[in-house]
C-alpha cells in the first residue's frame, strides 16, 4: 500500500512550522509507528533530519505516543493509542495528515513532540496519597467493596497521554484531573486530602489549560475509555468539600 | 584497575534475623544533617521512583533523571501480570520461607540465600505500602485482596490489578515521588540521559548528562549515585522491552570499574505474540497469567499445521506442556515453557507466520476455559489482553486460539552488587533490573516488580543512608578536574558517532543485524561453536559500526538518531560480553541452556560442582578480554536440588 503523508515539521518551539509531504510504501501488518520508522530510515540515508515523534513501549500503555492522524488524536481506532494503530486500518485512506497535539499548555518541542510536563506539575499539586514509605497498616485491615475497587481502577487506568486535551475545543485537562481524583477519592486513604479537587483544578488553570464546557470529545478519544462521569464525581467532591 | 576479593557483605546468623540485624548495624544520618547530602538517582521506574521518594521523605536532597518525558512512562509500566507476596491470604500454606525457597529454586540456585530471603521477607510490606498509596489491586467480593497463581508456583500469592499491575504500582511510586518534588526534596529532570560517571579515584561522585532537548552536556556532583536504569533486553533488538530501554548507564559504569555479573542470564518469556514481519520494531508480551486458564498445544501432525485450529480434532492436538510436565502443566516456569515451545517448532510443528523458513508459533487456547467458566468470567480476567492481541493480529482470541512464541523479556544479569546493593565502585549503587538481581539464572513470574520495589522502598533507603553516614558531604567545587575528564570523554564519544568516516548505514539497521546474531547464538539455546562464531561476527560488525554509522541532523538539539546510536554503540560492547559469559558457563542453568549440557530427555543439566558462582566480569581496557571474578555461592538453609517440574 502506498500512502501520501502530510507531516507537521517544526524545527523548534519558536520556529514556524508547516506540513511537508512524503510518500511511503507500507505493509498492512506494520504498525503506524513502524511505518514512520521506515520513513525516517529513508530520511536519514538521504542526509535529511528525520521526523521527531515520541514513543516508547509500543504496546499501548506508557502514554508516550501522541499523533493526531487525520484530525483525531491517536487515529481512527477507538480506545487505542497511536502505537497500536495498524496500517490495515488505513487501507481506504491513501492520504494522511499527521500533526502534534495542539494546546497552549503543551508547547511544541520539535516536529510532532510536545512538552507534557504540565501534567506532572498537576500531579505534584496533590495527585497522590500523602503516606510515607513504611507507615502503612496491614493491607487487609481495610476491606474495599469490589465494586468500589473496580470503579477506582477504571479511573486509574489513565495513561496521561493528553489526547483529552488535544481534542478539546477548550484544551481542557479536566478529564485527566478528574480521573486522578476519582481514583484516589475512594481508596482507603482517599479521604486524607479533601482539598485535592480544588488543588488540582487550580494547578490545571495555572498551567494554561481551559475549563470544561461539556463537549465530551475527551471521552470519545481516550485510549483507556475514561468516562466523563469521573468529572461528575470530581465536581461533587469539589462542592462537598468547600 | 585493582585486584580484589568479591565480598557480598552478606550478614551471618539465622536467615530470618539477618536483615533486621543488618538494619540495626547500619548507621543513620541525623535528620538535621540529611539535607546536606545529595543523592543522584538515574532512572525513575519502580526501583528509582520508590527509592527517590523514600530518600526524599527521609530528608535527603535527591536529584533524579529519566530519558522519558515523564517518570510515569518508565517501562515498569508495561508489566502486566502481578507482584508476589507471601501474605498467605489463601491459606494454602504460603510463607516467607516458601516464597524464599520457590524463588531460589526458580533461580536454579544461582542467587544468594541472604538476599533472596530478604526479598521474600519484604514482599508483604510492599503490598501494604502499595494499597495505602491507592493502588487498585483486584478484590474479592468480601472486599479483601484477591490473588492468583503464576508460573512456577503451586500457591496463589500473586497480587494484580487486571493486566496492568506494573502501571498501577509505578503510578503509586511516581505519585509518592511527585509529592517529594512539590516538597522540594527531589529535583527531577526528564528528557535527560546519563553519559558518563564522574569518578574521584575509586569513588563515584556524580554524572554527566545530556539534555535530550537542547543537546547540552551538564555535570552533577553528589555524595552517591544510584542507577535504577532497567535491563538490557534490547540488545536483541526485538524484545518485549520499550524501545528506549538501554544499557548505557550501567555499561558506562562498568567501563569505570563496576563489575558486570551474569550478563548471559536473559529471561525468555514463553507467551509473546509471534513476529510477523521483517521490519517489526518490537514484540508484545501476553501476560503469563494467561497460562492459568489457557492450554498450550500444537498439532500432532505436521500436515495439520496449515489448517485452521478449529478444524483440528481433539485427538490430533498435542497439549505438550501437560504431557511433558504433568504436575505443573501449563504453569511450568518460563524457561521450561519457552524451551518446550522452541522444541515443538524446531520439530516442524509450529503454526502461523514463517520467519526464515520456520513457522514460529504454538496455540494458547481458551476454548475450554470459556466453556467451563463462561465468556464473562474469562473476559473479566483477561479482557484487556484479548483486546490487545486482537489489535495486533486482527484475530479474535475468544473464537480462535492465540498464537504465541517466546521472546526476550528480562535480564537477570546486571551490575554486581553486594548485600547493600552497592557495586564494586565506592558510592555507586544499582537497584531493580539494573543490578544482577537476587535471582540468578531465571526469574519467576511476578517477582521482578517485587524486587524493584523492595530495593527502592526498603533496601536502598537503609544502605544509602549507611554509606552517607560514613562520609562527609562532598563539595562540588573540589571536582572540576574530574568533571572535565568525564565531560571530554562524553564529548568525544558523541563526536565519533556524528563523524563516522563513511556514513552510510543507520543505527537501527546495525541494531537489527546485531540482534539477529545475538538471538541465534545467545538466545534460547547456546553452543560453544555458535557463541564463538557470534563473538567474531560482533567484533566485525562493531568495527563497521564506528566506520559507517550515519546520523543526520546536529548534536546541538533534539536528535533521536544520535540518542539511538549512542545506545547501540553500548549494546555492541555488551553483547560480546554476554557471549563470552555464556561461553564460559559450561552448564545449563535457568534460561541459559547450553546444548552440550542437557540430559538425554533434553532437560537442562546444572553443574553445581564447578559453576555454583556468580560470574562477575571486570573491564580490562580491552572489551574482548575481560577479567572474570567468581563469587562462590553457599547454601546453608536450602539444598540445591534438581529443578524437576514433571
From TrEMBL, chain A:
Cofactor field: [3Fe-4S] cluster; [2Fe-2S] cluster; [4Fe-4S] cluster
Catalyzed chemical reaction(s): a menaquinone + succinate = a menaquinol + fumarate
SUPFAM superfamilies membership: 2Fe-2S ferredoxin-like, alpha-helical ferredoxin
Record domain 4Fe-4S ferredoxin-type: where: 149-179
InterPro entries xrefs: 2Fe-2S_ferredoxin-like_sf, 2Fe-2S_ferredoxin-type, 2Fe2S_fd_BS, 4Fe4S_Fe-S-bd, 4Fe4S_Fe_S_CS, Beta-grasp_dom_sf, Helical_ferredxn, SDH/FRD_Iron-Sulfur
The keyword 4Fe-4S belongs to this UniProt entry's keyword annotation: yes
Enzyme Commission number(s) from the entry: 1.3.5.1
Cofactor: binding comment: Binds 1 [3Fe-4S] cluster. Binds 1 [2Fe-2S] cluster.
Keywords tagged on the record: 2Fe-2S, 3Fe-4S, 4Fe-4S, Iron, Iron-sulfur, Metal-binding, Oxidoreductase, Tricarboxylic acid cycle
Enzyme class: oxidoreductase
2Fe-2S ferredoxin-type domain: residues covered: 3-104
PROSITE patterns: 2FE2S_FER_1, 2FE2S_FER_2, 4FE4S_FER_1, 4FE4S_FER_2
PANTHER family, sorted: SUCCINATE DEHYDROGENASE (PTHR11921:SF41), SUCCINATE DEHYDROGENASE IRON-SULFUR PROTEIN (PTHR11921)
Stated family: Belongs to the succinate dehydrogenase/fumarate reductase iron-sulfur protein family.
Cross-referenced NCBIfam families: dhsB (TIGR00384), PRK07570.1 (NF005746)
Name used for this protein in its record: Fumarate reductase iron-sulfur subunit
